[in-house]
Every structure is written in C-alpha cells, then in structure tokens.
Amino acid sequence: MKKYHDICQKAVQQALKLGATDAQCNINLSSDKSLSVYKGESEGLEQRNELGATVTCYIGQKVGTFSVSDLSEASVDMAVNSALAFAQISPENPYEGLLDKNEVQNPTAADVQALDLLDNTNMTPDELYQGALAVEQAVYGHNGIISTRGCGLSQSRSTSIGYASNGVSYQDTASVFSASVEAIAADSKNKVTDYYHDSKRHLSDLEDLADIGHQAALKTVAKLNIVKMPFSGKLPVVLSPEIAGSLLLSKLAGCISGDAVFNQGSFVKKESLGQKLFGDNIQLVDNRTMVRGLGSSAMSGSGIIGPEQVAFVEDGVLQNLTYNVVTGRKLGLCPKHGRPKMYNAHFKPGKQTVVDLVSNVQKGLYVTDVMGHGFKPSRGDMSFTIGGYVIENGIITDDYVLEATLSGNLIEMLNNTTFAQDLKFKYGSNSPTALVEGVSIS
Fold first, then answer.
1. Which residues lie below 8 Å from residue 303, measured CB to CB, with a gap of 6+?
2. Could you give the CA distance from residue 82 to residue 220 in angstroms, rounded to a whole number?
3. Distance (Å, rounded) from C-alpha 223 to C-alpha 344?
C-alpha cells in the first residue's frame, strides 16, 4: 500500500506548491465478487473492482474538491489542478479548513490490526456457487416454499488511504462476507415473501449457510396465516430487534446528527445536550473499536479518532451529537470530542427475557416488517405501514397481520420503551427486542 500513500503525499505536496494553503488526498480501492443461484443453476459470477482518488484543496477558507477514477500521474495532476481551480472561485466559508495540526490523531498499525477487520480468504467461483446452493436447498426443504429470489453469496474488500497537510495519515483494509436469500411461499389463498441474510468480517464467523436458508423459509411460511388486525387504538407493540433498530435507533441517530441540528432539521437542538429527553431505559452507546465489528474503524479521515466508546444517550439524557470538524465549528463544539458518524451503535439491553416482556401484553402486535418512509425528524412524528404477529394474553400468536398502520412520536415512544436482554451484534446498528407502550395501531 506504500505506493498509494506516496501518491497521496505527492498530490498534497503538489497542491501546496501551486498555492493551496492546505490540501488532502484520499484513495479508495474496492473489490466485490458475488454469485447467485436460481433453482440450482448459477446466475453468473459478478466481479467489480473500483479505484478512485479525491483531492481537496484549501485557499484560506475557500475549498474545492475533485475526484478521478484512475491513479495515473496525469489523472492525479488533473485532480489537483481542478480542485485548486474550484477553490479559487469558491465563496469563503468561515467554518472550512482542516483540523488543527495539534489535534490530529493517527492510528498506529497495531491499532488497525487489533480490530481484526481483514480476512484474506479468496473464495473461488465454485465455492461461491456451492455456498449459494446450500442456502437455496435449505429453503426448498420446507413445505409451502415455491421459489426464491436473490439467493447468493458474496465477498468484498475495501481499502482507504489518506494523507493531508495537517499531518493526517492513515490506511485501512477490511473485508465483508455476506449470504442472503428471499423466499417465496404460497398456499391456496395467499402468497408471501420474506428474507434472511448475514454479514461478517470473517468468513468463519458467517452463520451456517443452510441455517440462513432455513431461517428465510421459516419466516416466510409463517406469514401465510394472514388475518385482519383484530383490534386498533393505542396499543403496546413489541418490536423485533431488526425493527427496533430501524424505527428507534436509526431514526434517533439521524436526529442527533450535528448537521441536522445545525440546519434545524431535527427536534434535537444544541441546547438539548445535557437534557433528559427520553426514558431512563434509553442508553444509546457507540463502540468504534469492536473487534470484527461491521462498523469498526481505527481511524477517521478527518484526523479525529476520539474515544473508543461514546454514550450518546445515558439514562435518557442526551450526552453527545455526531459531527465532523466543520459541523463542530458551526455548533461551537470541540472537534477533538467529535464523532463523524456512529460505528457500532446499540441500545443497551434490559433485564427481562423476551417472553417476560411479552407476557404483560394482553392485546398488541409483534412487529417484524416495516414498509415505506414516514418520519418527520423536525418533530419526531412517524407513520409507517407495518406487518407482524398478533399478541393476545401475553403470547405471540401465529396470526400474521400483513398490513397495519403504526403512528407515533419518536420522543414519546422513547419515553415508553422497555428493552429485553436479547441484544446481539448482527448489524452495524443493533437493538434488543423493544416493548413500546401506547402506540396508535389501525
């Protein structure tokens, strides 16, 4: 990787020589390989390699950026000259500029290695085919399944290299292995679909491929028992971990983005920091250095590493926002304490089992599906079409509601949420099962 680092360094030095007061260059390389099957036949091997460089030049507080898709000397020279030209005609922005040199933190090689994000396994086309076939065969082993879609196995590898005139210098390589399948089931009355997938940094950590197929089939066949929503009104809902992550965690993460706060696009204000906005049960934590974590990273391109763990919400109190160097300046927040994004965000689990959590629900819905986009971050209001299983007398029944409407307000929901103890780190953002009281269901 040294040659790529040298290209970055040379581009920055050239920009400074041509009149830039500061400059940075980032190179990204990625390779993806995947194969899918349909009814035992390969649908072909797909392989894609991408390579690109981005140069950013500063003239005081004027900035210009230009990207190229190859690393020839002529292309990089063009990127430098174009970025510089754009900076010259750009209006001044009082917040622009790189992180101060004395605040830059660069990860060591040991920091990067400790995260264990790279598996150098190179799967052959036949291994990809046999793996995808194992997933599909497991799906067809269940009664009611009539077909599959998107049954495949893939691997990817990405590398980021960066250098800047303020001393930022990094390189990082990571891998991801994924398997997924969408199953289709039907009976004399209904036809339904569902899917299951898994992604891991290391191939050896990937769920058993046959189990992935079994899970997809079980989820899909269970949805054939469709009923109309037997009751409506203000009801308790139990959100599966995936849906809790989508409806609660992801929406909250968007609202505590520094950009959203500065642009007044969120119900959260800068003054909200230190205030109790949510219930005592809400503990939102982010761990940047989780070993083999799907979101883990030893570095930030801005030069801010920051603490390994950050509590964004603690006992319902908003403690931090996500923001980069420029947004931090806009908000008057210390860049060194910033975090440009969430890496492995999760709600801390509660003490109850899922069975205990559900046992107190006399009439409600266990939500497993969400469709559409119905969230207004400026107020926290949401309205989504959902699907899930009827809860009666403290038991999740086999009756599946294909379409119902969930309406509520994120602030109110997070003041009436109890989490179970079943937190698993399966995605980049994770949540335990969540019981939310008093949501409007129709």
1. 98, 99, 103, 104, 105, 106, 164, 166, 167, 168, 325
2. 52
3. 31
Specify the residue for token string 């003054």. Answer: 271
Structural tokens at position 317: 């109190």
Reading the block at residue 149, the tokens are 């879609």
CB 226 within 8 Å of CB 190: yes
pLDDT tens, residue by residue, 129-169: 999 999 999 999 999 999 999 999 999 999 999 999 999 99
CB count within 10 Å of CB 424 equals 11
| Tokens (6 digits) for 206 | 């990937």
Give the CA distances from residue 60 to residues 26, 88, 107, 353, in Å, rounded to whole numbers and listed in that order.
20, 10, 27, 57
What element of type H or E holds 26? strand 22-38
Q: For residue 103, what is the DSSP state?
A: G
Q: How far apart are alpha carbons 400 and 37 in whole angstroms?
A: 29
Task: Give DSSP secondary structure letters for 123-160.
Answer: --HHHHHHHHHHHHHHHHTSTTEEEEEEEEEEEEEEEE
pTM over 0.85: yes
At 337, is the pLDDT very low, low, confident or very high (cuts 50, 70, 90)?
Answer: low
Tokens of 337: 């304490």
| Cα separation, 436 vs 402, whole angstroms | 20
